[in-house]
Structures are given as C-alpha cells and as structure tokens.
Write a structure and sequence with these properties.
heterodimer; A: mainly alpha; Amino acid/polyamine transporter I; two-stranded antiparallel sheet; about 70% helix; B: 4-stranded antiparallel beta sheet; about 45% helix; about 10% strand; rod-shaped
Chain lengths: ~625, ~220
Amino acid sequence: MAKTKDSGVEERPKWDNKVQYLLTCIGFAVGLGNVWRFPYLCQIYGGGAFLIPYLIALVFEGLPLLYLELAIGQRLRMGSIGVWNSISPLLGGVGIASMLVSFLVGIFYNTILAWVLWYLFHSFQNPLPWSQCPLNDNLTGYNVECEKSTPVNYFWYRETLNITPDIETSGSLQWWLVICLASAWCVVYICFIKGIESVGKAVYVTATFPYLVLTIFLIRALTLPGATDGLVYLFTPDWEILKNPQVWLDASTQIFFSLSVAFGGLIAFSSYNEERNNCERDAVLVGVINSATSLYASIPIFAILGFKATTAYNSCIKGNILALTNYFEFSEQNITVENYDHWLKYLNQTSPGEVASLDLTHCDLQTFLDQSASGTGLAFIVFTEAVIEMPGSQIWAILFFVMLFSLGLSSMFGNIEGVLTPINDLKLVPKWIPKELLTAIICLVAFLTALIFTLGSGNYWVEVFNSYVGSVPLLIIAFFEITGVIYVRGMKNFSEDIYFMTGNRPNIFWKACWMVISPLMLLVVLIAYVVVQAQTTPSYPTWNPAYELFPQTEVKPYPDWVFAIIILLCVLPVISIPLVALYKLICCRIKKSSARTDLNPYCNDGFEVETREQQNQRA
Amino acid sequence: MLEKILVLLCLPSALAQHLCTPGASDGYKVRLSIKTALGDQAYVWNENEMFLFRATLAFAMRTHFNGQMYNVSNIVVCDETPRVSFWFVVTSPLDTSTLVDRKDVEEAVRKSRNRINSAFLLTDKTLEFIGIAPTLAAPVYPDPPPWLIVFGVVMGAVGAGIIILLVTSVLQKKRKKNEKSEGEDDEEDTRVKTVENGTASDGVYNMSFSDDERFTKM
C-alpha cells in the first residue's frame, strides 16, 4: 500500500494475529444466553430431543448467515453501514438499522453486567448476604417480606433492584445500581480505549476465562450429591415434543440470537482481517464452538440444579421427620431420610388422624427439579441459592459472577463495535476528534440512556428491551442482509469475492442455503414469531408484596403507553431500511437528471497524478 | 422415729411433684436434640444430665432473683420422653407448694440462655424452651460496607488504567507529530493518489457507469 500522508487516511486497524480475531468472534457469539437460556430450553423441550431441531437450525440457518456476514465484511472491509452502501445505496438503511439495534441491545445488556458486578462485590462477605433474612426494624423478628418469600428472592428483588410493584410506578434512581452501572461502562471503555488493539488483548482473558470456570464448576458439580439426578432430568429425551411447532421456532430463534448475527459487529470484526483469509473455516469454527459451549455449559448448570433440588427435597423430608419426631416423642434419629416412607406408612395406619393434623408437606423430587428458570432468574435466584449450600460458597459465588461478567463483556465488545465502526467509516465525526474521545462520548451517552434501567421499575424495562428489541428487528435485518447480498449483489459476484478471499468457490451446500433455505427459514421464523406474539396480550410478571398470593409473581398486562413504546422499539430500527431507500431513490433521480452529460466516461478519477497546488486547492 | 423423719423429708418433694404436670400453666416444656447437634460426640441423656439441667436452671433463677436461694430441689421435672423432652416447674424457695410465675421463669431463662446452652454444648435451636423465643442476635453492620470496599478497589484500578492509557496515547501522538513535521519538508511535490478498490468514498462517484451494470457485469 502506498504511503499515505497527513490527509488523515489512516491504515485500517488490523488484528495482531488470527487468534485474536477468532477469540473476539467467539466471545461475541458466546454470551450470557449460552449459559442461562440454552439449558432452560433443553430442559423444557424434552432434553436430548431438543438437540435435533437445534442442530438443524444451526446447519441450515446459523452457519450460512454467519459465513455470509464474515465474508462480506472481510471483502468490502467496512463496517455495517459502509458495506451495505457499497452493495447498493438503497440498502444503506440495513446498516443504520444494525447500528441502532446494537446500541439499544448494548445499553440493556450492560445493565445486566452491572447487576452481575453488584453480586460480585457482595460475594466477598461471610456469610453471603443472600443466605439469611435481615431483621425487622425493632429487632423482634425477621423482615416480613423476606419471611414470606426466601432470603435469595428478597436480596434480588428488594436489596438489589428495590423493585416497584409494576412498570407504571417508576420509583427513583437507586444510587448503588448507578455506581455499578458506571463501573460496568468504565470497564467497557477501558477495553475499547484503543479500538481493536485493546479489545484484541482484553479478549484473551474474557473469552477464555469462562471455559476455565465452566470446567472447574463441572468437576465440582459432578461430585455433589444429586448431580446425576439433574443431568438425567436434563438429557432424558422426550421425542413427542418434536411434534410441537413451538420447539422448532424456539430452536431457530435461539440459534439466531445466540450467534449474534445482524448486529453488524461480526461484519466490523472481519473487516479488520487481511483480504485473503479463509472465512469459511472461521465461520464454521465459530458456529460449532458456540453450540458446543452451550452444551458444555448446560452440564454443570444442571448438575448444580440437580444438587439444589436434592438438597431442597432432603430439607423438606427432614422438616417432616422433625415434626413427626417431636409430636410422637420418638427418640432422635429413629426416623431417617431412608426409612421415612416406611415410618410414614406405619404411622398412617396406626394413627392417621394425628398424622393428618400435623399437615406434613408432600415432598417430591420431581417438583423440585421442575422449578426451572432461565435468564436473570437462573443466575441471581436459583444459582445463588445453590451456591449457599456448597461448602466454600464465597469462592464459588466469586468464580460464577466473574465468569458471567467476562461472558457478557466479550459480547458487549461486539455490540459497541457495531456502533463505533460505522461511525468511523462514515466519517461522521470531524478528524480532530481522537477515537478515544469518540469512544468515551458513546459510552457516556449509553450510560446516561441506561439510567432508566436503574430506576425502581428498571427490571421491567430490561425485560421489555430484551423481548422486543433483540428479536423481531434482528430477524428483519438478517432477512434483508441475506437477500441484499445474494440477490442485489448477485450470487455470482459473491462467489467471485469468496474465490478471491479463500481460493475456492462456495460449494452447492452454501449456495442452496443462501439462495433458498436460509431466507425461507428466516421468513417462516419471522412470521411465526410475530403471529405467536400477536396472539397473546403481552403481560409481565411483577413482584408485588401486596399481592394476596405473594410470593408468587403477579402477572399484569402492559399498559397502553408501554405498549406504544414496545411498538416504537420494534419499528424504529427497521424503519430506516425503507426510509433510506426512498431517500436515495429521490436523491439519485435528481442527481442523475442534472449530471448525466457532464462527466467524461473515459475520465476515471481512480488514477490521477495531481500536483501539490491542486491538492491544496481542493482541501 | 427414723421412719417419721424419712416421711417428713420425702413429703415436700412428693407434694411438689404433683405441681408438675404436662401443660402446667406455670411450667415450660424443654426439648433437646443432642444427636442432631453433636453427631458422633453425642452424650447419653441420663439421671446425671438431668441433675445438671436442674442445677443450671437453679443457677439461672438465682442469677435473676439476686438473693433468693434457689436449690436443685426447687426445679421439678416430669413427663420425660425418649425424645429427650420434659416439662419442668420452679417452686419458690420460701414455700415449696407455690410455683414461681411463668413470666419470671421466662426472664430468668432468657438472661442466662447462653450459659444454659453452653453447659450442654447445645444451641438455641437444639435446646428448645417451647414458648420462650430466642432473642435474635443484633446484626453486625461493618462500616463501611464490604461491598463498597471491593467496588472502590475495582474502580480505582479501572480509573488508573484509563488515565494511564489516555496519557500514553496522547504522548505517542505528540511524538508522531514531531517526527512528521521534521520529515515533511523533504518530500517531493508529486504524489500518486491511489484509490483502493471498494472504498468508493475516496474517489468521485462517476455517474456515467451506473447504468452500464445492465450490460457489462463488472
């Protein structure tokens, strides 16, 4: 490349080595969803049987989309907006949509990381603060709200979120969440301060550390009592479930969101590659590793959930044993967990009335195993409860939350990259602003916007964003991406691009997927998703201490103004696609009609020897 | 004569025994869970342990009512079960046929609960006085809260890192600028400006070729 001078055309930043690039892509793809969404889906959709729709979706929908994004980014060497502008000016809106979605997802995702930080900071105490109820005001008993629910629930809903009874009551800013959010954004900033140079170094830690912790947890979890019950429960296949179309829909959406396509981040990352790089191998590697991580993560998660269910079952039985022993004045430890059933039968025969009066709770291991959770419920309620029972709770809590933080942080890199690279490529900001300042401004704006999630009703808003921003808009963007590349740029051009980069043309499998199968699947998934959402009135679970069935969550429908905001969130990113297309059409028509005969078709500005005066004149 | 003295001696305790009944209004039920608390090192509950209990309780009554000389005989126990639970009542040292009021016994036990527990190597949960709730330990709130300390450490490290990185990049830029301004004066005037394929923004968009896509695939 010719030596460019002070006009500010810098060389495009590059990855130090291939490993950094792969780790960044893997880190972006592997996120919190692999740990807390996939095991839940596996469990509710018949264990081992769920792997079938999941793998089919990976092969026919996930990998082609991933390969497409990496290839187009590497070939055109620009961020998402530049890439789509290059393919066709009418498609520029796709890039803007990607950028908006990346920004919106980034702000609520980092709020979750702020919550993880809060729990991490609290894991350095003995005993763990979520293991016992605090006392009430006059020190005569325990806090009422905590007594009715559990200490873990109380710590999450009251001491962390200080949640309001519904989304309409906003509450005030919770200062402790604000400082945790500030620290989360500071950590993101420090990793991004030098662009991909610093990201590439940070990702050595954030992308590999979760695997280390998962392995440690795997070894520890498999030695806990009840682990095998949890694993058997997770993986027992229920083949009947495959007849339910919802399973296929959830498998497709899970693969799609898990791979983090359509954010623009992957396009940006691969644009920093060298031109001749085998992106086919990269795509297959990233896709396969992402799914393998999901599977690998579900093993310790479910072993620990099995342990938790067994412990709960044992305490349930022990409670009953105590009640019986105290009432009938038997000698201690006559009734044990092993001979409990035998004793119960005997006592029911001899004195059924008295046994009935004791009101023993019916203990069933299956019920405890069925208490599944996904998302924040899994991490902050179920898992923290399990950690209390493990010896050395602090270490396990610290390891777990650091793992969650690095998983989320590496995904945040992709989100921020999806916002930064288009801005840099479009040269929207004047040259004198250094990139550190630009990154700082973006982080600051995002932090200020994310302050709504630190209100009392913040958790409800995170749920709104999670369900609606990170779903339909992405599907629409991906559909336009695939049709844009294959049908507007042309399959032949794209094959030539790939031949230029890898030395091989794409084989029949990729072609069939890109041209027919993947767009079709995306369309079906999109329509099915919208139909399913439209059939149920959107409602949300609330934590309301005044509810008569407390501690069960009260399900309330969204009020109208929230519903309007939901529609706005779905529509706003994707509205840019038709808007930009219209704008370009109108502009083009005006330009064409005026400038048609002015330019000499044989005068190509590509090669021009200019003198310094000419250059000064132009500048 | 001797028999008369013996009868006279046994009479008070016999009289006192009838005061202790399960469900007595001035009595309390005690329940011990020795095996649960001590596991392998559990001791066997026998007459000696019962004697210790009565003595400890007499101690508690003496401590509470400073001056009144309670004795082991003032603690009357009945209805022992294999569970190791029993009822007890406390008779007044001045008159063995009257019982000490329930509230006073409760206060005495509350005051010396810790000592009673330690005498038997048990805790509030494993040595239960049914009806006397254990006083909850006052919460210890260390000031400043530990989480703020951890937060301070983390933020301090991150803040220092940001400042260091920013300062080094500013210094680097300054150095580059100085080098550049030295090297610029030696350069020639003509340069070839190349436009990289694909970066359409660097050149001038040549409208004449936009329609030709229909004819020539480029």
